[in-house]
Inverse folding.
C-alpha cells in the first residue's frame, strides 16, 4: 500500500528522501558513539569531525523527507490558523501616528525571505529589501560542522532575523545561525562578519551592535565538542568585533556553574541564549552598559556587567523558556514568556504565552496582558516577541504562526499582520521590530536621501 501511494505521489522525490533517511539511520548507528563522547574520546581528530557531521544527518534527512512527502517547509507555520485573514488589517485608529514596523518574513509566493518597512498608520510598505542570499553566503569561509550555508541557508531556506535599522536606512541581520550582515538602504552588501550569529540584535548607547554567536571551538572544561557555547558579541558599526565573551564561561567565573553542568544527562544546549539587551542609561538597580541576558533553557534572566565581569542579578522563572527581555523604566523590566515545556513528541505551550512585568524595588511580578493573550490565543511555542508601548498597548509577535499584532490588556486588537501566501498557507515571521514615531521619522529621512539604482528590466 505504501509503495503504491509513493508511486502515485511525487515518486522520485519521495523514494529519494526515504532512501536518504534509511542511509542516515545506518550511518548514525555507526558513528553515534564518537559523536556522543566528543572531545573526551581518544579517537583521531578527523574521525571525531566525521562523527559530528554524521550525527547531524538524521535530522536533516527527516527534514528533506517531510518536505518531499508532505510539502513541508522550514518556514511554514506550525498550524494553519486565523480563518482566511491575511496581510495587514487595522481595527482601531493609530495610537502613535507615524510609527513603523520592520518586518522580516518568509514570502510564500516568492519562496524567499524579505524585510519590509511598513507604515503602521495604514500598513503600506515603505521599502522592501530582498537580500542577495547567494552573494552573502559566497563571502563566508564557514564550513561544516559549524554551519552548512549551502544546504541550510540558501535563498529558499534562509531565515532572516531581527533586522536592526541603521543610520543610512539599511539593516543589520543574520539568518539564524549564519554570519552577521549589513546592507545599505538599497540592499547592497556593506559588510559581513564571519561568525555563527543567532537570535537578538540590539544597539547600545554608543551605537555599537550587540548580538549572540556560537563560540567554536569552546573551552568549557570536560564538556564534549558538540556543546553549543553561546557568546555575547559587541560589534562596531563598521563590522569589527570589539568584545566577545562566552556566557557559559562568565557563569562559571561567577560561581554559577550549575547552569552549565547540572543536567541529569548530557544536553548540548544547556543555556540557549536568545536575547541580549543593553542598558542605555542608569537605572536604580543597574548601570548604563549592563546587559540583560535571556537564557531560555534554564528559564533565567540575568544582568551581566562587562566592565567587571560580574553577574549582578539573576532570576529563574516563573517565565518558561522565555524570549525577549525589555527595560521598561528605571526599576521594571518585561519578559515575554512562551510558557512552553518539552514533551516526548516535541514542545508544547501550557495554555498561552504571557508578558511578565517585574519590579526590582518591590519584587512584585504581574501579568497585565494575560486576558489579551487568552482572548487572542497567542501561543507560539518558540521564539516570539513582546514590547509594551508608551500608550499602554503591547506589540506581540507569534513567530511560529506568522502573526504580529498590537492590542490592549483586554485583548482588543488595534492592528494585525498575518503572513499568508496566495496559496492560503501561513509562513513564519521572525523577530519584527517596532519603531516609535521619533525613531521612524529618522528612518524615513534616511530612506528619502538614499540614491538607489533603478531595478534592472
Amino acid at each position: 500500500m505504501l509503495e503504491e501511494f509513493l508511486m502515485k505521489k511525487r515518486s522520485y522525490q519521495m523514494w529519494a528522501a526515504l532512501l536518504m533517511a534509511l542511509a542516515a539511520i545506518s550511518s548514525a548507528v555507526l558513528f553515534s558513539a564518537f559523536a556522543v563522547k566528543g572531545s573526551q574520546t581518544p579517537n583521531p581528530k578527523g574521525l571525531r569531525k566525521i562523527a559530528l557531521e554524521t550525527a547531524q544527518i538524521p535530522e536533516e534527512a527527516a527534514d528533506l523527507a517531510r518536505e518531499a512527502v508532505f510539502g513541508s517547509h522550514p518556514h511554514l507555520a506550525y498550524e494553519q490558523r486565523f480563518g482566511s485573514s491575511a496581510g495587514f488589517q487595522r481595527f482601531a485608529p493609530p495610537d502613535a501616528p507615524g510609527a513603523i514596523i520592520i518586518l522580516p518574513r518568509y514570502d510564500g509566493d516568492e519562496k524567499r525571505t524579505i524585510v519590509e518597512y511598513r507604515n503602521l498608520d495604514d500598513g503600506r510598505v515603505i521599502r522592501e529589501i530582498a537580500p542577495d542570499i547567494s552573494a552573502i553566503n559566497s563571502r563566508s569561509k564557514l564550513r561544516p560542522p559549524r554551519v552548512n550555508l549551502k544546504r541550510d541557508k540558501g535563498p529558499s531556506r534562509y531565515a532572516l532575523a531581527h533586522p536592526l535599522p541603521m543610520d543610512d536606512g539599511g539593516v543589520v541581520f543574520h539568518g539564524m545561525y549564519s554570519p552577521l550582515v549589513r546592507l545599505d538602504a538599497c540592499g547592497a552588501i556593506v559588510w559581513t562578519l564571519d561568525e555563527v550569529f543567532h537570535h537578538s540584535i540590539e544597539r547600545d548607547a554608543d551605537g555599537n551592535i550587540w548580538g549572540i554567536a556560537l563560540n567554536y571551538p569552546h573551552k568549557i572544561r570536560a564538556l564534549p565538542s558538540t556543546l553549543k557555547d553561546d557568546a555575547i558579541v559587541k560589534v562596531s558599526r563598521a563590522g569589527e568585533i570589539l568584545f566577545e565573551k562566552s556566557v557559559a564561561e562568565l557563569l562559571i567565573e561567577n560561581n554559577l556553574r550549575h547552569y552549565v553542568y547540572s543536567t541529569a544527562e548530557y544536553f548540548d544546549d544547556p543555556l540557549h541564549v536568545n536575547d541580549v539587551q543593553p542598558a542605555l542609561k542608569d537605572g536604580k538597580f543597574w548601570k548604563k552598559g549592563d546587559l540583560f541576558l535571556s537564557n531560555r533553557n534554564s528559564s533565567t534572566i540575568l544582568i551581566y556587567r562587562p566592565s567587571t565581569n560580574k553577574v549582578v542579578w539573576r532570576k529563574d522563572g516563573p517565565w518558561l523558556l522565555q524570549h525577549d527581555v525589555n527595560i521598561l523604566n528605571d526599576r521594571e523590566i518585561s519578559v515575554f514568556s512562551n510558557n512552553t515545556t518539552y514533551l516526548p513528541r516535541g514542545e508544547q505551550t501550557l495554555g498561552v504565552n504571557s508578558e511578565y512585568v517585574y519590579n526590582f524595588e518591590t519584587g512584585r511580578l504581574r501579568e497585565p496582558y494575560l486576558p489579551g493573550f487568552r482572548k487572542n490565543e497567542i501561543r507560539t511555542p518558540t521564539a516570539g516577541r513582546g514590547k509594551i508601548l508608551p500608550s499602554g498597548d503591547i506589540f506581540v509577535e507569534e513567530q511560529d504562526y506568522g502573526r504580529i499584532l498590537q492590542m490592549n490588556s483586554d485583548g482588543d486588537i488595534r492592528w494585525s499582520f498575518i503572513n499568508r501566501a496566495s496559496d492560503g498557507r501561513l509562513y513564519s515571521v521572525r523577530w519584527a521590530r517596532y519603531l516609535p514615531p521619533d525613531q521612524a521619522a529618522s528612518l524615513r529621512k534616511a530612506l528619502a536621501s538614499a540614491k538607489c539604482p533603478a531595478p534592472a528590466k
Q: What stands out?
A: Residues 1-19, 25-59 have pLDDT under 50 and may be disordered. Residues 2-69 form one domain.
